[in-house]
Amino acid sequence: MTQKAIFDDEAKKWQSLYLDSSSERWGIFQGYVRKRTRARMDLCLSLLPPLKGKEIIELGCGPGYYGIRLIRGGAIWTGVDISRAMLTVCRENTRSNRLVLANVLALPFRPGSCDILLCIGVLSYLRKSEIAALFSRVSDILRKGGIFLVQTVRLDPLTWIRCRLPCRIPRPFRIPGPLYPRNPKTIAQLLQTNGFSIRRIIPYRKFIIYPAGTVYVAVKE
Fold first, then answer.
1. Would you say 77 and 51 are in contact if contact means Cβ atoms under 8 Å apart?
2. Which secondary-structure segment (H or E) carries 161?
3. Which domains does the chain have, with CATH numbers?
4. Distance from the Cα of residue 127 to its chain's centroid
5. CA–CA separation, 45 vs 40, rounded Å?
6. What is the CA radius of gyration of the chain?
7. Distance between CA atoms of 62 and 47, rounded to whole angstroms?
């Protein structure tokens, strides 16, 4: 099963990560995972400058809850996802037609197309060479001085195992995988190599002390 098919199957369940009222039930830690997912969204959005009139592209937009808040803030938002089913859910939630079905390694945007580009929950599915190619393309898409906000994950043993279980093994919520954790130094080096100046590197945690991931705020030089 491809990543795209897995995302298609999970499109409705994925949005339950953001909704208290969701009827979807996919695990005993659902409430905690939802809380952590929304906290990550709050963190990422708090790092952006005033949004009004800014052209923003979000890679891996999923069900669109970042998009909802960006649009409310006055941004001109475009969402990109590899899953057609996920974009259907996203369109219902955002009521936006600025949605693009595309692989992040083949982005159909002109040079200098946006002021801010978000890449959250995406890099863990890419190999190092693919990340380098993506960062080079993002540098081309952003205007000079544009902001690139990118996030990576750190994998705990349980998540590492869950994302590698055969698809035939039933479980209520499928984590597409395998996932590739990245050392912060590796991501920082790739950003700098591709013409970005790093403004902030912010780690965040789960289970109180365990590193969950890292958020980077970089500016195109």
1. no
2. helix 157-162
3. 3-220 (3.40.50.150)
4. 16
5. 9
6. 17
7. 20
